[in-house]
Each structure stands twice: as C-alpha cells, then as structure tokens.
Amino acid sequence: MRIAITGVSGRMGRMLVDTAATMNGVEVTGATERPGSDWIGQDLGQALGGAASGVTVTDDLAQALEQADVAIDFTAPAATLEHARICADMGRALVIGTTGFSDDELAALAPFAARACFVRAGNMSLGVNLLTRVVKQVAAALDEAFDIEVVEAHHRHKVDAPSGTALMLGEAAAEGRGVRLADVADRGRDGITGARKPGDIGFSAIRGGSIIGTHDVIFAGEGETITLSHVATDRSLFARGALKAALWCDGKPPGAYDMLSVLGLE
Ligand SMILES: NC(=O)C1=CN([C@@H]2O[C@H](COP(=O)(O)OP(=O)(O)OC[C@H]3O[C@@H](n4cnc5c(N)ncnc54)[C@H](OP(=O)(O)O)[C@@H]3O)[C@@H](O)[C@H]2O)C=CC1
Ligand SMILES: O=C(O)C1=N[C@H](C(=O)O)C[C@H](O)C1
C-alpha cells in the first residue's frame, strides 16, 4: 500500500515514517507539510536526518497522492478538511487521526467520506478502542448513583481539550447510559459551580511535560469507586493503528469508518 503522510514534520508525522519502515506491505511514497515550511522541496529521508528516500516533501497533497493509494492525516482540523476534499476528489482513502474538530467541522467532513473510504478515530490504539467497549458495558450496568468522570493527561504541546480519546470514552459512557453526550457533558469547572448534577459526565484535562496520553474513566459511587485506565507509553502505538487502518481500506467501499471496524471490535 502506497501512503502519503500529511504534516510529516510533526510528532505523529515523523512517527508514521519510522513505523512504516518496520511494517510489511506499506511504503511511504508521498509527504506534505504546511505551505511555507522549511521542509517543502527537501528529500523526506534527508529532512529526517537520514539517507535520501526519493520522496520530496510538498505542500500539495494532490501531487503527493498521484503516487499514493491512501493519505494518513494527523494535522489540525482546518488542514484535515482540505485534505479530505482532495482525497474525495481523487477517490483516495484517508485515515484521520486529527482531533479537536468542532461540530460544524465534523458536519463538513461527512460529505467527503461519502466519496472514498475514510477511517477516523480520536485514538488509533487497540487498547483505547477496546476500553470504549468496556466503558459502555460498565456504564450500562451502573445507574446515576455512580458519577462518571473522564480525566486525561497529555504533553504541554497539545492544543485541544478534552482530548479526542476522552470524547470517545465519554461517548461510550453516554451510549451505555442511553443518553446523548451533548446533553450531559460537563467540560469545565471553575469557581462556585454548584453541586454536581446527577447523570452528568465530567471531563478534566491535565497538560504537562512529555506525557504521551493517559486516560481514566472514573465511576464514583457511595463508598466505592471503579477506575478504568489506559496509559500510552509510546506514540508508535498510534502510528501502527493508523497504518493498519490504511491497509484495511484496500478495496473498501466509500464511507465513514472507525477503528472498531478496523480492529474487528464492533
Ligand atoms: N488519533 C490518534 O491516535 C492520535 C491523534 N493525534 C492528533 O493528531 C494531531 C497532530 O498531533 P501531533 O503530531 O502531536 O501535532 P504536531 O503539531 O506535532 O503535528 C502536526 C503537523 O501538521 C502540520 N500541518 C498543519 N497544517 C498543515 C497543512 N495544511 N498541510 C500539511 N501539514 C500541516 C503542522 O505544521 P506546523 O507545525 O507548521 O503547524 C505539524 O507539522 C492532533 O490533533 C492530535 O490530537 C495525536 C496522536 C494520536
Ligand atoms: O495530541 C496527542 O498527543 C494525542 N491525541 C489524541 C487525543 O486527542 O486523544 C490521542 C492521544 O491521546 C495522543
């Protein structure tokens, strides 16, 4: 599978190049960066401090996709939307790891996914996707006597909160409870907040240092607490998931898919 990586100089972009080199059946044949980046026009391998790879970094995804079957995108919502339009126009699959979309941006993404295979997930790891199933089950088994709180921690560079993973876990808890997350989410407490509303699902975000990604879903009852946790210790985890999704897209009809489909966890 020939892969174009967008935002290739970023933390996940670099990790995707390194991880692809260790996996069978995938080859990085295209790479993009933001217009104006120092990386544009450079050989990808040399830009990464290694040997020449024969892949030139461009700011034009359409050009990168001429030699690729699928794009993998870990950039930022506005850039991802533009990449989605290009993939849809060219009939190329797209794996989206970007997080922090607004509701309007997600609505704008949907028509593009109707024209090619799109896989999107706020977390590409097996562990987190499996955890969403467990959270749904536990939330379904417990009533509102158990308060649900999602606590996440990430590195100091992360720009969005709650994390995409926290929102996936919150959605799973809401689904288990049979409610809409939008109706019960409590996404920021400060000052005299009043007592906690029964049934709310709370979110808290910690930012600091080089934390890769830690998520706890807390079910707090009277006299007992259940905590379900996931700790990421290596970004290659997300890259492996994204590359697996790219391989999975081969021959799939157009549509919006998630990692539960890719991992067979539905
Ligand atoms: N789903 C998952 O499993 C995971 C998701 N993520 C998400 O992925 C996203 C990226 O994370 P991370 O790699 O840490 O962030 P980085 O900021 O390190 O990387 C993003 C890269 O995208 C580049 N970029 C921005 N706009 C464009 C554009 N128009 N064309 C090409 N490249 C562009 C940025 O350039 P510049 O620096 O110049 O802006 C940067 O190099 C975030 O939303 C994060 O939450 C991260 C890890 C796992
Ligand atoms: O920005 C990150 O780093 C991460 N983002 C994703 C998220 O928002 O949940 C996945 C992972 O936690 C790392």
Automatic annotation (TrEMBL):
Residues at which NADP(+) binds: 34
A Pfam family per the record: DapB_C
Pathway it works in: Amino-acid biosynthesis; L-lysine biosynthesis via DAP pathway; (S)-tetrahydrodipicolinate from L-aspartate: step 4/4
Subcellular location: Cytoplasm
BP-aspect Gene Ontology terms: diaminopimelate biosynthetic process; lysine biosynthetic process via diaminopimelate
Entry EC no(s): 1.17.1.8
Classification via HAMAP family: DapB
Protein's name according to its UniProt entry: 4-hydroxy-tetrahydrodipicolinate reductase
Organism in which the protein naturally occurs: Palleronia salina
